[in-house]
Specification:
CATH architecture of the largest domain: Alpha Horseshoe
Number of strands: 0
Largest sheet: none
Helix content: over 70%
CATH topology of the largest domain: Serine Threonine Protein Phosphatase 5, Tetratricopeptide repeat
CATH class of the largest domain: Mainly Alpha
Length: 287
């Protein structure tokens, strides 16, 4: 059992790990299997929360034994109840967490859960993650879309679809199965839907704003309206001035040099000096 401290997958899956387990159990059959699984899930959340508070590899070693015991308990559970899809999914989530990072085993468990119950959106999403990380975006997208069909109100699934389409945009276009006319609206729409479904999550909103730079023919008027509106939602100082950096960038893209320069003059935070200087250089070169 490995104990890496960080992983890119933690960013993609952290929300699903903490929020999805209870949802699986809510529809599970009543009786002893559910009660036992609820106890395992409660212990899992307790241990993973403790792992998040650790700051060094040495501190994580304290969790080795209890996590190993939890793995044994899951294996006992699956031997006793081999047809419980939620049990495979929950154990897979544990193995998939960066503190354990047993990817191959977790993939096998997710596949088994998917065989037993094809209606588990979280399982579809996790399989999509694995395929995306393995460099198979064209296969991953089908799992993400399936997760969205099953739970269209879950913002994380829309966000991850948008992330996949943005990061693997060239792969989709080279495949011949997607065109820019199809891909770009889907990319923007995925981030916009995530933002709409989770209006208090500024990360989703910020990523939607960045998505305008990912497409071939951006709607710069819509981009400008977004960054101006987003500025009013964030804190004064660096956060608002970051929004103005983007406003200036959009003005420059629209050929509105005077407006871009006027916005840049309001940016005073030193942490933004490099971005500001780059845009000023573009303005000067445009002459």
């Amino acid at each position: 059992m490995r104990f890496p401290l960080t992983s890119r997958r933690l960013v993609l899956r952290g929300l699903a790990t903490l929020l999805g387990l209870a949802a699986w159990l809510s529809g599970a059959p009543a009786g002893d299997p559910t009660e036992r699984l609820q106890a395992l899930v409660a212990r899992q959340r307790e241990l993973l929360a403790a792992a998040e508070r650790k700051t060094s590899q040495h501190e994580l070693e304290d969790l080795r034994q209890p996590l190993q015991e939890l793995c044994y308990a899951y294996e006992d559970y699956l031997r006793a109840f081999p047809d419980q899809a939620a049990g495979y999914a929950s154990y897979a989530m544990l193995l998939d967490h960066p503190v354990i990072d047993e990817r191959r085993r977790s993939t096998a468990l997710f596949l088994r859960a998917n065989q037993l119950d094809s209606e588990m959106a979280l399982v579809k999403n996790q399989l999509g993650n694995h395929l995306a990380e393995d460099g198979k975006p064209l296969e991953a997208v089908n799992y993400y879309l399936a997760a969205i069909r099953l739970e269209p109100k879950e913002p994380l699934y829309h966000y991850q679809l948008g992330t996949l389409l943005a990061e693997a945009r060239d792969d989709f276009l080279k495949s011949g199965e997607w065109t820019a006319d199809k891909l770009d609206p889907a990319l923007l729409g995925a981030f916009r839907e995530a933002m709409t479904l989770a209006p208090d999550n500024w990360r989703y909103a910020y990523r939607y704003g960045l998505a305008f730079y990912d497409v071939d023919q951006p709607d710069w008027a819509a981009a400008l309206a977004f960054w101006q509106g987003f500025e009013s939602r964030v804190k004064p100082g660096i956060e608002q001035q970051t929004c103005r950096i983007h406003q200036a960038r959009v003005h420059l893209a629209r050929g509105e040099r005077d407006r871009a320069r006027a916005v840049l003059e309001t940016i005073t935070e030193s942490v933004l000096d490099r971005q500001k200087a780059k845009l000023v250089a573009e303005l000067n070169a445009a002459k």
